[in-house]
Amino acid sequence: MMNKNTKLKGYLVNTVALAVLLMAFLILNANFKTPFYSVVFIPSLWQISYLIILAASLNLVLGFLGQLSLGHCGFMAIGAYTAALLSLYFERAGIFTDKKAPVFIVSILVSLLAGGLLAAIVGIIVGIPALRLKGDYLAIITLGFGMIICNVINNLPFAGMEGLSKGSAAASLYKTGLGFGNTLKTKYAWVAIVITILCLAAMFMFIRSRFGRAIESIRDDEIAASASGINVSLYKVGTFVYSAFFAGIAGGLFACCNSSLSTASFAFTNGSILNSTFIVVMVVVGGMGSLTGSMLSAVLMFLLNYVIKNVIKASGMPLFVQNLFKYPMLVYAIVLIIVIMFKPKGILGTREFSLVNTIEYIKGKLGKKAVKEGGSK
Amino acid sequence: MKKTIAMLLAASMVCPLAACGGAKKAPEGGEIKIGTISPNTGAMAVYGEAMVNAYDMAAAEINADGGINGKKVVLVKKDDQMDPTESLNAFNALVAEGVDVVLGAVSSGCTAAITDAANEEEVLLLTPTSTADSITTKDDYVFRTCYADSFQGKIAAKYAKDLGCKEVGVLYCAADTYSKGLYDSFANACKDYGINVVAAESAATMETIEFSNQWAAIKAKGVGFVFAPFYYYTVGPYVVPQARTAGYTGIIMGADGYDSANNYISQGSDLSAWNNVMFTNHYDPADKNPVVKKFVTNYKTKYNDTPNALAALAYDGLYMIKKAMEKAGAEDAKSVRDALADTSTVYKGVTGTFTLDKSGTPVKGATVVEYYYDKANNKVATKLRDVVKKLD
To answer: Which residues does chain A have within 8 Å of residue B20's beta carbon, measured at their own beta carbons?
Structure first.
């Protein structure tokens, strides 16, 4: 059991570590200006940010609540379109005119929050009937939701292709609204990082709270949980909605990062790493029931995808290596199989990476070593 | 043991990343790096592979002929799986490698995601195949080798007019830049020609495989001409056969996305469904013009396949870059851009002889190709129906 003292110490250590890392990053960001940094590293950072939020938020439902949802990208789509449309509205209403002004960041944050809230509201509407079902049935209904929402968005007169494409094709967000070009992405890199940290902190607080323990008990044994006086449906819908909220925020970040929106990105047929099944894969690889595991696997999967597409395929590698990676989708599947073979519960299982414990562990090891060395003398 | 394997796997994943960081920033003395972005895997892989073949062929020819300004062309090829996010990643990766000229992307949706990035990074972007009107704007770094959708849509409308149709139907996808753009230009042109669009049915996505309801609704209106802009992978197995199943026997008109559709017909389906299907295209492989003949023969010997229109456009794209670089006498993005922006330059390519307009879109003709059921060989073949140079 964790006592109050170590808990406080943990918060302190984590906050200090994050603050130091963030400061270091900001200093780096201000001074480090190679093309590789602003064109490859920073866009990757943005993409990793939304992938982390997405995987971690799905883990709440899949890993902690134990329900299989296959429509997570649907919530992301809602968040992305809401945030984009709202930011376009702000610009037309003259609330911000220059993307360098501080008011721009405020309107972005408001847009992101609105995206998250709308996703949460849709989460309530979908969650109440859907969570009465279990297992496969829930998976099917959420799968359907993910497909339906793309079609709904496509055919809304103010969203879809017709609404956002007024201007320079689908890229209209680049110059207007919340779209970020590479320069702006570098300038505002801290926005992505801070939002990711805040979202993760909120999720950690959720699973460490009374709610978190309640939903874990529902996962382990639903009947026992309800016999202990836990309102099962309320907690299920609550978690689903909480998870949808963060998926919405991730969608907003996606819109900022990509500067163009098309529902093809959120569709089930998306051949790349951004589709609802792939987010499930990320959660499984990282470990169901480990938020840090989801973070780790989101980063790993992004790097894997990026390396396959942009490094291995680039000229220079021997031909047989290139041919080996000709079909990236196969590689993802092989990685999943390897992880499941060697680590059936995912990379981290249900454990969480903890800075305090790691420090303790290292201290312990060093202590042991010292004792050992002392003994051998 | 397991741990060792896991560590090895992890290491093998990280190693290429290190290589990525060390990428050279500027091309060396005797080389010009040209980036390409195409969907080499995924639903549009047929187009992607054909284009990569054509790029390779053109680069080999140029290099055998002494290169551009005495320098060797080196292609840096990227795959985007037809996902806009991946297109942007691929584009950024090319910029980081110090590429000044990028050929891509293929679908209009993907290209739309990178046009403004090209303007911001001041990298020349020449898209061989993206036909959406909004891709090229007035004065920037974006150019293309194909004509725009407004032109394709107009040709389709003119055909309806020439055939004497007063009422026409449309089957399209409101969610797709390409399909919606074609629908808009077709509908506008119809208005000008005094033709009524009595049935406009939409499918949810470009990957839809079930059109029975839409065809039934169109059939109920009794039209004899339907404009249905989709891509080959749904046209071949679904759009056309389902139209005939629903009892629609009139003309189905498509756009350049119909190219290669006859390779995608389901086994055992009724091939006579393919009579009365036609589409606008960029070139005709059977053309007697020596440039076209040389291209088709060389492609056939090299890849054992008849090149589709996208291969032809890709081939022309690289030659456009060559001409612009030679004209500018330099290879940096700014000089190439200025050379391409000169509207008086005449480009002689496989897809026609053309000049670029102010926005960076070629002014050139379109061919109208018709599918028909070749009874003797029991297959669906194509024949040239018309060449449209200019619209009245």
So the answer is: 40, 307, 310-311
Output the CATH code of domain B8-147+289-360: 3.40.50.2300
Distance CA B5, CA A338 (A): 10
Amino acid letter, A272 = S
Range from A130-144, A317-331, B89-103, B123-137 that averages highest in pLDDT: B89-103
Q: What is the pLDDT of residue A10?
A: 79
B96 interaction partners in chain A (CB closer than 8 Å): 35-36, 39-40
Helices (H) and strands (E) counted in chain B, each on its own, are 12, 15
Residue A153: partners with Cβ closer than 8 Å, 6 or more residues away: A77, A78, A81, A159, A160, A263
Measure in Å the smallest separation between the Cα of B37 and chain A Cα atoms.
Answer: 11
User: Is B175 in contact with A151 (Cβ distance < 8 A)?
Assistant: yes
> Domain residues of chain B, as ranges?
8-147+289-360, 150-281+367-388
Angle between helices A72-92 and A42-59 (to 10 degrees): 130
- Among A190-204, A262-276, B370-384, the minimum mean pLDDT is found in A262-276
Residues 6+ apart with CB under 8 A from B144: B126, B127, B128, B129, B130, B131, B135, B136, B360, B361, B362
Mutate to test the interface with B, among A158, A168, A303 (most CBs of B within 10 A): A168
Inter-chain residue contact A259 with B117, CB threshold 8 Å? yes
> Which residue's structure tokens are 């390897």?
A338
Topology of domain A33-376, CATH: ABC transporter involved in vitamin B12 uptake, BtuC (1.10.3470)
Domains B8-147+289-360 and B150-281+367-388 are alike in CATH topology: yes
Residue B13, amino acid: M
Inform me whether the pLDDT recorded for A215 exceeds 50: yes
Q: What is the mean pLDDT of chain B?
A: 85
User: Which chain B residues contact residue A167 at CB under 8 A?
Assistant: 134
B150-281+367-388: CATH class: alpha beta
Domain residue ranges of chain A, discontinuous segments joined by +: 1-32, 33-376
User: What pLDDT score does B4 carry?
Assistant: 60
Q: Report which of A216, A314, A93, A84 is spatially closest to residue B16, judged by C-alpha positions.
A: A314
pLDDT digits (tens, 9 = 90+) for B25-57: 444 458 899 999 998 877 778 888 899 999 999
Tell me the residue type at B229.
Answer: P
The chain A residue lying nearest B95, using CA atoms, is A39
Q: Are strands B72-79 and B31-38 parallel, antiparallel or unpaired?
A: parallel
pLDDT at A271 exceeding the cut of 80? no
